[in-house]
Specification:
Helices cover 21% and strands 27% of the residues. It has two helices and five strands; from the N terminus they run βββαββα. A five-stranded antiparallel β-sheet has the order 4-3-2-1-5, with helices on one face. The termini are far apart.
Length: 135
């Protein structure tokens, strides 16, 4: 079986509170772990997408509309749908499994992911990833 759920692959979450949100795989666990004996992956994604910016908006309003809210989560392979897109944002040292063990580590990791995703959005690359999925 070919492994196609690799790091930096953009996926859609299918179940749970964040269903329909786009995320990127940070680390894949194909064989599972002792705590989770099934294939799963660590994903970081967008919980709240940036709003549409128009030309007449002020700089302050543009900055506010360009904000994203990020999340970090362990997800079962059954609950993700891979896409053809990949996102070359370096999240490996920021988003780790041990960051999920305590609340403050998770919050600081999410803030760092948020900063990196916002930089990516402002650079204008990967436009598809930063648009809300319409369904």
């Amino acid at each position: 079986m070919v492994k196609f759920l690799k790091p930096n692959k953009a996926v859609l979450l299918l179940q749970g509170r964040l269903a329909g949100r786009k995320a990127v795989i940070v680390k894949a666990f194909d064989e599972g772990t002792r705590a989770r004996p099934y294939g799963h992956c660590l994903v970081a994604g967008i919980a709240k997408y940036p709003s549409k910016v128009i030309r007449k908006d002020s700089a302050k309003k543009t900055a506010k509309k360009s904000r994203v809210k990020a999340f970090i989560k362990l997800v079962n392979y059954q609950h993700v749908m891979p896409t053809r897109y990949s996102l070359d944002v370096d999240l490996k040292e920021v988003a780790t499994v041990d960051a999920l063990h305590s609340r403050d580590k998770k919050v600081t990791a999410a803030k760092e992911i948020k900063a990196r995703l916002e930089d990516r959005f402002k650079s204008g690359k990967n436009r598809w990833f930063f648009t809300k999925l319409r369904f």
